[in-house]
Amino acid sequence: MDALLRLLMGPWTTYLLWVLRQQGPQRFGVLKRAIPGISSRVLTERLRLLEEAGVIHRDHLPTIPPQVTYSLTRRGQELGPVLDALDALARRWHAQNQAVRGRTEHDAARRQAA
Question: Do residues 46 and 12 lie in contact, with contact meaning Cβ atoms separated by under 8 Å?
Fold first, then answer.
């Protein structure tokens, strides 16, 4: 359990896996654009780490320029229900935060009007 949690806790790792789950196999540039704020260096590190762990597959086509595509392996696909649960939780928390923020702004506006 500890090794899996350490793997998933790395910067951007869970989000990267979620993008591959949602969008399917992707090239490096597409992944970089899909994850705002990630640097090329960190994305490369995360991809290598996940490949070494057997969670993603790197498919290299020797074309000019070379085409490299990343996809989830069976092991990576096993994380699907976990990623879906995290996505649902994130959406629920976001909605709750928005509701609290809306009530707070409404209350502040009422106090200013009084």
Answer: yes
Q: At 113, is the pLDDT very low, low, confident or very high (cuts 50, 70, 90)?
A: low
Residues 42 and 90 both lie in one domain: no
pTM, to two decimals: 0.82
Number of domains in the chain: 2
CB 59 within 8 A of CB 26: no
What is residue 17's predicted lDDT score, i.e. its pLDDT? 98
pLDDT at 99 over 90: no
What is the extent of the structural domain holding 60? Answer: 1-77
Classify residue 84 by its DSSP letter: H
List, in sequence order, every beta strand (DSSP E) within 1-114. 26-27, 56-61, 67-72
Q: How much of the chain, in percent, has pLDDT values that exceed 90?
A: 79
> Same structural domain for residues 72 and 87?
no
